[in-house]
Amino acid sequence: MNSTYKIALGLFLLLVVSLAWLESNEPEPINWTPSFTAKDKIPLGAYVFYESWENSSPDSIIKIKIPPYEYLNDDPQTGTYFFLNNKVNFDNKELDDLLNWISRGNTLFISAYDFGNNLKDTLNIKMESYISQDGFRSNPKLNLVNPELKFQNALEFDQDLPALYFSKIDTTNNKILGTASFGIKPEEKVNFIKVTFGEGEIFLHSTPQAFSNYFLLKNDNYRYAEAVLAYLTGRPILWDAYYKAGKTFFSSPLYILLNNRPLKWAYYFVIITAILFVIFEGKRKQRAIPVVEPPVNRSYEFSETIAQLYMEQGKYHELGLKKISLFMEFIRSKYRLNTDNINEQFYRDLAGKSEKSIEDTKRLFESITKYQNSQETDKSGFYELTTTINSFKKYG
Question: For the whole prediction, is pTM greater than 0.70?
Answer without folding.
Answer: no
